Amino acid sequence: MKCSNCGFENPASFKFCGECGAKLKNICPNCNFENPPNFKFCGECGNPLTITPKQKELKKQEETKEKEKKETTPEEKKEELYEGKEVEKITETQKEKVKKEGERRPISVLFADISGFTSLSEKLDPEELQFFIGDVLRKLADIVKRNGGYVDKFIGDEVMALFGAPFAYGNDTERAVRTAIEMMDFIRTNYQNISLHCGIGTGEAVVGSISEREKDYTAMGDTVNIAKRLEEESSSWEILVDENTFLLTKHIFDYKPVDVKLKGKEKDTKVYLLLGPKKHQVVFIGREKEIEEINRILDKKRSRIAILGEAGTGVSRLIKTIAEQRSDVFLAKLSSKNEPYGVIKNILTSVIGNQIDQKKILEIAEKFDLSFHFLGYIFGINFPDSILNYISPEKIEEETLKVSNKIISLLFKDKVIAIDNFDKIDHQSQNIFISNGEKEFSVLLGIEKGGFDEKKLKDFRIIYLQNFNFEETKKFISQILESDIDEQTAKIIWERTSGNPLFIYELVELLRENNQFERVNGKIKIKENTKIPKAIGMTQVILSRIDKLPQSAREVLSVMSCLDSIHKDIIERFFSSKPEYLQSLKLLKEKDIIREEYPFFFFSQNILKEIVYETLLKAKRIEIHSALFEIAREICKDDITLILIAGEQAEKSERFKDAFLMYKKAGEISKIKHNIKNAKEYFEKALNLLQKAHLKIDEISEVYDFLIEYGEILYRTGEIDRAIEIFEKSRNFSQDEIKLAIAKRWIADCLQIKGNFELAEKIYLEVLQIFKNRKKSEYIKTLALLCHLFVDKSLPEEAIKYVNELLNSIDNEIKTENQDIYAEALNAIGRAYFLVQDYEKAKKFFGELYDTTLKLSDIRKRGIATINYGAVHYMLGNHDTALLLFKEYLEIAKSIMDVRGEALALANISQILFERGNIEKAMENLKKSIDIFEKIGDEYGTRETKYMLAKMKIFIGETEEGRKIIEELYKKTDSNYKKAEYETLIALSLVLEGKFAPAKELLKQAKEKYENVQNQTEFKITLSRIKLNENEFEEAEKIAEESFEKAKTEIEKIISCINGIKIIKAMNLELVIHKDKLEKYQKTLENLSQKVGLSQEMLKVFN
């Protein structure tokens, strides 16, 4: 014993210093706490108060290692880390680190309050009472520590303890309940005048040090408050628990609900009174083979078995089941890992009693022929002039092992000693049970996989417990619910829990408690729209696995958990200054916590990643996210993956402006690469961040450009109303008149698509004046849009007026320096000539448009050129070329998500398919096209495709249906050109039904509205039939021949031939000229019949 006055080392039996004569104080060498003279272990920290020779030697070795460590060069240090030599040291320093840093984690909080001190205060001196209370509290604290808990604080005459923090063991809630029971047993056994009552609450809390001092580690949150209220409401010898504690342990302990209202809680909290441990616990289904094998081995006597499995696979349950089934099994009581020979002491005291002193040691040693020195060493009892003072620590260890083996063999001969959580007991006890010495007893160990070096178990029969497969999971769930389980429900639970039995049990109970199951067709299934909860016990188990890792490995996991896509380059850059990173990475892979698939890392289980992330406090998360953003932004360049990671990290660190810029950049690159789907997604994310950031007009200059780009994408994908909204919003982020006019013009373009031609025209004319003489390129683009407007309105004269203005405005500079605008102009001009049926001119301009777009990188414009070029080839009779171009455009439109373009392509392809006799496919394509146009609100596209559908129906004899469609379209147009077209088609349908008089009146009306309508094939055929019906044969034949000569498309030629043949046959003339015409029609029809399958259908209708 060291003198506090002069520092002289005195023998343990001295009461006064042999050097200076001062009274010796029993001061703890670890924490400097002054203990009563008879204490052998410190009442404050639990450390031994006397230092044995072995401990002196170990201390000396540690000091030597520390000195060598300081002298190690950086290169040598790095090498050590790579070889894994530093892992254990990192683990030791982990505890201090964890206690200083705050985190969120699910914990169980135990408040234990001692009652009865009032009566004692009347009998004891205040100093004696204080010492008595302190002694009782310290012993209760020992029970907490022995069960893996953490003593948070003493508050008067009560103990507050945490389970699951700072380290989790997986069954932390169970440990809390067992601790409360053990505390009560201890008080009942050892004290007559005092009692105990407890409260236990389980849930999430924030844990960590509230200052720099390690002793200030504590828990805060509602869970703590609930536990305290439960303790206050409990009576003497009662343990009250909350609902979470009940759900997590009801398979181990019996409870009954009690009607208790907790003070200060607005919401009712379900409260349960602990009745005690269950006498018989449920055995997990699917472990029958393992139980049979273990029993078979144990029956052979003196066997050694180790059961290994991940936390939650049922190792503990299996050990307890074996202990319940067999009368020869002794289930050892656990102790703190920091208590030397703790388990050995518990095993021995279960037989020889708890009152161990020098006298008892001497009696036992004599009875069993043992060395009392080494037996006493196990219990921390020293004898005067002990031989232990004169032998090496190695020899002490060796002889103590022999003594332990001998006494246990004598006391437990032919018995089975079962030790659960073997990986968590003190290493001295571990060495005794795995040593090679002869043993007269069997050993059954339960070990968490990865928690113990399996190489040390070479003499053991190892049985591995695996997670359940799907079929075993189904069977297990059915057993818990006592009913058949729906296949999909079982699959959801299996995938969520990875088949871990504990996870399955807890999740099923949680869903049942929350009434999330229903019975359908005799089977239990999860209700629709149920959000699968994250069970507390599952979290505790996973944290117990994480808590065993070195601190450096935990840091790596914390950073990885902050990334949705864990990119290797980012992680390596983050830890570039930490050489232990590589070793941590290796360890995490070995423990199957992460895997690598270059260039990414992945967590082995998503839930593991979620739980690691949830332990981080918000401030810590933001700190990590912000650092990851800086790295990703620095290295991303044009890599979309890294740009998105940067955006995600900026958003999570609440740097919304930076996140906006990253998603904007990702959208722009995707748009350039014509990945419109992704571009739209990234722009949408950027927009959401724009709203979060509450940016003002001058904060980010790119906002206007971004909104215009995003609006354009919405326009292309057919979300017209949304596009208008975005273009309107863009006007809030610029004060430049030209930019404001461009945004306004986009709105007009959208209105045009929606069929609001008047307002669109008004806006175009307004912005045209702004651009005139100020921005020639935008002026020409606006002229082109006006030209398109009048084409869509079917007003050819107005359209041609703007064609002339365009031709006058385009110069060489536009053609060579601004080909994008030039392409816009060419498209408008070509469409205008197409409208007036000047197909040669249309072909010229569309051809030039096609050539121009080949030089541009704009695939969308190339697609427009392709379909328009195809349309003019179709009208000129080059149907094979047209079909090829239409199909090419369909692929282009799909690739860039141009839904409007897709609808146009389908409509044009359907026209050729119809003419070639594939009526069913033509109708299918056309209906798809109509659906798209209607969905995106494109009035022009809807109108034109419905007109095509009506025409097809009339041509195949479904005249009434076709006429109904046309009549609906007629009501919605104000264009005389379109009205004339519609009236002509209705007239044709009436003629085919033999209704000549109303048909004749309609043709008259059509000609009055638009004179050129009389040049259309449908008009001429209808008129020739009317003339035939009026017996004006010559006139009928003349008009029929005109329609044949002017027919452009195959379908026009077919119906013209059929019409001509019918009229000539009706004339019944034998003139050579008529015979020649008849032969011409018949030959043409025969040639078309070989190419087109529709002619027979037409014969039925037009004959």
Quick summary of this structure?
With 1103 residues, this protein is of the alpha/beta class. It has 7 domains: 1-51, no CATH class; 104-277, Alpha-Beta Plaits; 288-465, 3-Layer(aba) Sandwich (Rossmann fold); 470-536, Helicase, Ruva Protein, domain 3, CATH 1.10.8; 547-635, Arc Repressor Mutant, subunit A; 775-870, Serine Threonine Protein Phosphatase 5, Tetratricopeptide repeat (Alpha Horseshoe); 911-1102, Serine Threonine Protein Phosphatase 5, Tetratricopeptide repeat.
Notes on the protein architecture:
By secondary structure, this protein is α/β, with parallel strands linked by helices. It folds into 7 domains: 1-51, no CATH class; 104-277, 2-Layer Sandwich (Alpha-Beta Plaits); 288-465, P-loop containing nucleotide triphosphate hydrolases (Rossmann fold, 3-Layer(aba) Sandwich); 470-536, Helicase, Ruva Protein, domain 3; 547-635, Orthogonal Bundle (Arc Repressor Mutant, subunit A); 775-870, Serine Threonine Protein Phosphatase 5, Tetratricopeptide repeat, CATH 1.25.40; 911-1102, Alpha Horseshoe (Serine Threonine Protein Phosphatase 5, Tetratricopeptide repeat). Helix content is 61%, strand content 10%. Strands 3, 4, 5, 6, 7, 8, 9 and 10 form an 8-stranded mixed β-sheet that branches. A 5-stranded parallel β-sheet has the order 12-13-14-11-15, covered by helices on one side. α15 (427-434) links the parallel β13 (416-419) and β14 (442-448).
